[in-house]
Amino acid sequence: MKKLMVNQKYDGKKLNKFLLENIPNLSSNLFYKTLRKKDIKINNKRICKNVILHENDEIVVYISDNLLTFSIDITIFYEDENILILNKPVNLEVTGKNSLTTYVHQKYPNATFKPMPCHRIDRNTIGLVLFAKNEETLSILLDKFKKHEIEKHYLALVNGIPNDNDKRCEAYLLKDSKNCYVSIFNVYKRNAQKVITTYHVLEKRIHNQTSLLDVEIETGKTHQIRAHLAYLGYPIIGDGKYGNYEINKKFGKKYQMLCSYILKFNFKSNSGCLDYLSGKNFVLEEAFNIF
Predict the structure, then answer these.
(1) Which of 175, 205, 222, 227 stands the most exposed, by the fewest C-beta atoms within 10 Å?
(2) How many helices, marked H, and strands, marked E, lie in the chain?
């Protein structure tokens, strides 16, 4: 059971907005299911509609704590007193509600500093994500990413076989936030951002005209790898947004075959309490079994 009091911020707002923002791990589906069962009381009256709230309304929600526990199978790839590296599965955001960060915060419920992600990967991109376990570490790692002293490499299975085994590609990316989509151009467009994507061909699979690429990005922009490779003529297999529907159907892939599989710590400047990480490489070898 959850008992809450409506504050001024939510005066005149709907019940769902208030509860979804104030009860951790409550999903829309669970909210409406609870509403239909009349398991929500406002000022001691059971309700079954998504009503408008008023300041000082008292709300009681009869939901088992078990239903509000975020549960998902996450593999801890590496952990020490300062950092945590997780192997993120598909169909999971790094931040936000019911995300990888939610899982991490539940894992450390009594921590004075809840571990925070130092970078992000797309919802349907799998692989290594680095978290900082204290404020000093977070500050250092964010600075290292900014200075390009941490390399992130991705494994990508693409349709087509590049002519060049190694290539550094520059282009311009224009983001359409409303439609959650980006476009790539070879010349500058207004509001576009320069992107640099480098790939190395690890394997050419002539029998089905696909290639396995190691990809590194010097500029981490939204959907950069997926959009840029598609623009170059090598769409990632399984990518429903920038890929090819018929090709995805042919290979039976519902999600992009893209994995964050290497983190390299190439510190060139002072790294404080993280000096011990300098020169270390973390490689997700199992990614090759998936691709």
Answers:
(1) 205
(2) 7, 15
**What number of other Cβ atoms are within 10 A of residue 248's Cβ?**
21
Residue carrying structure tokens 């010097």? 218
Walk along the chain (291 residues) and give the pLDDT tens digit of each residue.
889 999 999 999 999 999 988 887 788 888 999 999 999 999 999 999 999 999 999 999 998 877 776 667 788 999 999 999 999 999 999 998 889 998 899 888 888 999 999 999 999 999 999 999 999 999 999 999 999 999 999 999 999 999 999 999 999 999 999 999 999 999 999 999 999 999 999 999 999 999 999 999 999 999 999 999 999 999 999 999 999 999 999 999 999 999 999 999 999 999 999 999 999 999 999 999 999
For residue 57, is it within any domain?
A: yes
C-beta neighbour count of 46 within 10 angstroms: 12
CATH number of domain containing 192: 3.30.2350.10
With respect to residue 240, please indicate whether it lies within any of the assigned structural domains: yes
**How far apart are the C-alpha atoms of 114 and 23, rounded to whole Å?**
18
Total domains, the chain:
2
Measured N-to-C along each axis, helices 28-36 and 15-22 cross at an angle, to the nearest 10 degrees, of: 130
For 113, the token pair is 């500093």
Rg from Cα positions in the chain: 23
**33 part of a folded domain:** yes
Reading the block at residue 241, the tokens are: 């947004």
Q: How many CA atoms lie within 13 A of 45 on its CB side?
A: 6
Question: Domain residues for 47?
Answer: 2-68
